[in-house]
User: Fold this.
Amino acid sequence: MGNRTTIIAGNWKLNKTASETRSTILALRNRLVGLSTRAEVVVFPPFVSLETAIDAARGTGVKVGAQNVFWEQSGAYTGEVSTAMLEALGLNFVLLGHSERRAHFGETDATVARRLEAVLHGTLTPIVCVGEVLEERESGTTGEVLARQVEGALRDVAPDHIGRVVMAYEPVWAIGTGKTASPLIANDAHTLIRSSIAAMFGRSAADETAILYGGSVKPENTATLMSESEVDGVLVGGASLDAGSFAEIVRAAG
Ligand code: 13P
Assistant:
C-alpha cells in the first residue's frame, strides 16, 4: 500500500430491487458503525435503485456509484443515461469498461475512452476496469492485453485529469469463478497497469493512481490481497451483496 486512496467497492451487477437496496445499505451501515477504516466504501446498485441508495446511504459515509454511463448528454439515445443525470442524483463514482459490458454489450476500448472523456468533463470519479481472459493469460499475452486496454481507455485523458482516474484490474477468469488471483499475480498485473500509465502520463501520475483488484474477493482473501504494495483496494461482486460479508471485507482491508 502506498499513499493512494483505499477504495472498497461493491459491484452489485444485476441484483437487488430498490427496497432490497435500501435494506442492504441499512444493514451495512449497522455493521460499519464503530469500525474505523481508512477506506472509501462504495456500492454500485442498478440504475433504478440509485436514488434509493443515495437516500439510504446519507450520513453513513457509504458512497454510491453507477455501473455504467453514456457519453452523450441528451438526445435520441433510447435506454441511456448521462453523466449529468448521475451527478444530479448526488453520485460519486461510476464503473467503466467492466468485462461483462465488454463480453455482453459490445463495449470496446474505444467506447470506454468516450465514456471516460464524458465523465472527466463532470465530477464523477471513474473506475476503469481492465483484465485478461483465461486464454490470454495461458498464452502469455496478459501484459500486451493490459497495455492495450489501458492505452485504449486512457488515450484521450488530459494530463491534468489523470489524477481523478481509478483503475481496476479484474482478470476475467477470476470473476464469479471462486478462483481469486494470487496476491503475486494481482501485484504483477497492477505493476504492468501502472507502467502503462507511467508511459502515458509520467511516473508520479502513475504512482498516485489507485488500482483496485477484483475477481472472487471474499472476507478470507482480502487482507492478503491488500497487503500487496500495488493493490489499493478491492472491487467485489458476489461477496458485496451480503452486508455482513461486505462489512467483513471492509474490516479486513484495514
Ligand atoms: P466476483 O467478486 O463475483 O468475482 O465479481 C467481481 C467483479 O466483477 C466486480 O466488478
Remarks:
- Residues 198 and 206 are 5 Å apart (CA to CA).
- The first strand starts at residue 7 and ends at 11.
- The chain has one domain: 7-253.
- Residues 11, 98, 170, 175-176, 214-217, 235-239 surround 1,3-dihydroxyacetonephosphate (CB under 6 Å).
